[in-house]
Design a protein that fits this description.
Elements (H helix, E strand, L loop, with lengths): L1 H9 L14 E5 L9 H17 L1 E7 L11 H12 L5 E4 L4 H13 L3 E4 L3 H9 L11 H12 L9 E4 L14 E5 L12 E3 L1 H11 L4 E5 L3 H14 L5 E5 L2 E2 L7 H9 L14 H6 L4 H11 L6 E2 L2 H12 L5 E2 L1 E3 L1 E7 L4 E6 L9 E6 L2 E5 L9 E4 L4 E7 L2 E6 L4 H6 L3 E3 L2 E2 L4 E6 L4 E6 L10 E4 L3 E9 L2 E8 L1
Parallel strand pairs: 1-2, 2-3, 8-9, 10-11, 12-25, 14-20, 18-21, 23-27
Antiparallel strand pairs: 4-5, 5-6, 6-7, 13-24, 14-17, 15-16, 17-22, 18-19, 19-20, 23-24, 25-26, 26-27
Helix pairs in contact: 2-11, 7-8, 11-12
The structure holds one RNA strand.
RNA sequence: GCUGCUAUAGUGUAGUCCGGCCAAUCAUGCGGGCCUUUCACGCCCGCGACUGGGGUUCGAAUCCCCAUAGCAGCACCA
């Protein structure tokens, strides 16, 4: 008995169980293709992914492009790329603009079931009636009339704004948002980039149609959809379909990056941002560029879970997850910020062997040839510092004369350096160094690094005493790196 | 305003359904120490929370009520 109890305590589930998931699940991630994916999307994407991996089943990517105003033709590809980067087990991909005929068909059936009607009321007028819990005249039309009007909608008999299809719900529902919400509308402009159409389903209709058609069993989405879930239930009831299991997680506040697609686009167009992967943006491609690994993103999202309380996203937690992944694999190099060139007196040429990774000796070393002149960080040259240890090399004594420092060799003994509490600093041979700029979200850090860093293009490395960076570009002019985190 | 939802340390999270294993878990952060030729990693120690007030009960983080706060929705967006 006690064993059972303690076991219960030790069995920490990563995520809470989903009801009715024992025999596998069908879940979906359903983004609007208006831009690349950002951290907010990653939560839904990762949560669904984790459950599908836990229970087995299918993972449907459903591109929800039923509003031509909010479709960026380039986003289709970006979304797929971003999900690929995240490493999700997507099994099916559907695009709603390919499926308009299905929605039309189901709409006809729904009208035949008397679950929907074509409303030709002025929008303001309808809203007024709705708020008074009063049916608009269109609601009383016969099924036959509705079918005629529906056909008229589809055959350009109405112009934009002149007619819509509404779902019959409960006009006495205390929440006005529930009362006879729209299911289809006419949009003459803009043209849809993927399909010729002018009658488009609204999200609540197309989502129900697809969730049912695709056999979706569980839906995990943000709580901004709670009202939609209630609306969608009316459609399920009209058709007599089985309703999926829903989970709505709370709002996630994310500070420090730009997330609004329109704001990002604006900034890119006016040159404020370099592109969708500008590191000031919260897109997944920006995180990737900064050296955040997809596993870290997923782990951080799973740690947040599906709670329905509002939370604030913690960059610290993400960085911590990323460090766990990156630290064991990142090679170490010297970066000297704001370098000053100093001549060391009294030292013979030395060859320093510095480990590529301190806890993985098998990875080998890099060699730095000392021939007399080195670069060291400017911050290490100040009157209150009298001794330094050049890491993996030797000790240096600094003496000050009239405010001018001079540097002399002070032995190889590490013990001496320790005894003197000397800083162990990164350095570079003056004859073997390349310029290096580290771009951070706040600005840039200029310095120099080991030439060998050029072979780490695209990888995350650690500049000792500085932090992890991703090597973004290498060239004759030097190296550009993005600061990942400490 | 109307309709709902939520409320555990700086942050995230477990526990809340079925009240006692909870003087509240784990992670992160912060402070200190050890290790170390990085201010990294690892290890050890510490800091820090049940929104407030009533009620029910032998007993409440857990149930009920009120208050407060936050959030969501109230689009011919998703």
């Amino acid at each position: 008995m006690f064993a059972a109890l303690s076991e219960k305590h030790e069995h920490k589930k990563v995520l809470p169980d989903l009801e009715g998931a024992e025999n596998g699940v069908v879940m979906r991630f359903a983004p609007n293709p208006s831009g690349p994916l950002h951290i907010g999307h990653a939560r839904a994407a990762a949560l669904n992914d984790a459950y599908i991996k836990q229970y087995g089943g299918r993972y449907i990517l459903r591109i929800e492009d039923t509003d031509p105003k909010r479709v960026d033709p380039e986003a289709y590809e970006m979304v797929v790329e971003d999900l690929k980067w995240l490493g999700l087990a997507i099994t099916d991909t559907v695009t709603q603009s390919d499926r308009l005929h299905l929605y039309y068909l189901l709409c006809t059936q729904l009208i035949e079931r008397n679950g929907a009607y074509v409303c030709t009321c002025d929008n303001e007028q309808f809203k007024e009636l709705k708020n008074k819990k009063t049916a608009c005249p269109c609601r009383e039309q016969s099924v036959e009339t509705n079918l005629v009007l529906w056909d008229k909608m589809l055959t350009h008999g109405f112009k934009e704004g002149e007619a819509s299809v509404r779902i019959k719900t409960d006009l006495n529902n205390p929440d006005p948002a529930m009362r006879d919400f729209p299911a289809f509308r006419i949009l003459d402009v803009p043209a849809h980039p993927k399909v010729i159409a002018h009658v488009y389903p609204l999200m609540n209709f197309s989502v129900v149609a697809d969730d049912h058609l695709l056999g979706v069993t569980h839906v995990i989405r943000g709580k901004d959809h709670i009202a939609n879930t209630r609306r969608q239930r009316y459609i399920y009831d009209h058709f007599g379909w089985k309703v999926p299991v829903y989970r709505h997680y709370g709002r996630m506040g994310i500070e420090g990056v730009v997330l609004s697609t329109s704001q990002m686009r604006l900034g890119i167009n006016d040159g404020t941002y370099t592109g969708w992967d500008d590191i000031r943006l919260g897109t997944l491609r920006a995180l990737a560029r900064r050296g955040i690994s997809p596993e870290a993103v997923k782990n951080a999202m799973l740690a947040i879970g599906i709670g329905d309380t509002d939370i604030s996203f913690s960059w610290d937690n993400l960085y911590s997850e990323n460090k766990k992944i990156v630290d064991p694999v990142a090679n170490r190099y010297f970066f000297v910020p704001e370098p000053v060139t100093v001549q060391i007196e009294g030292a013979q040429p030395h060859t320093a062997h510095a480990m590529l990774h301190p806890s993985d000796t098998a990875r080998g070393t890099r060699t730095l040839e000392f021939t007399g002149t080195v670069l060291i960080p400017k911050s290490e040259v100040s009157p209150d510092i009298t001794m330094l240890r050049l890491k993996d090399l030797f000790n240096v004594k600094i003496s000050w004369d009239n405010g001018m420092p001079s540097f002399t060799y002070a032995g190889d003994s590490l013990a001496d350096a320790r005894a003197a509490k000397a800083h162990i600093v990164q350095w570079l041979p003056a004859q073997a160094t390349i310029p290096c700029t580290i771009l951070t979200q706040e600005g840039e850090m200029v310095g120099a690094c080991e030439p060998a860093v050029r072979s780490e293009l695209g990888k995350v490395i650690q500049f000792e005493r500085v932090g992890f960076v991703k090597i973004d570009a290498v060239g004759d002019a030097g190296v550009v790196a993005y600061y990942t985190h400490k």
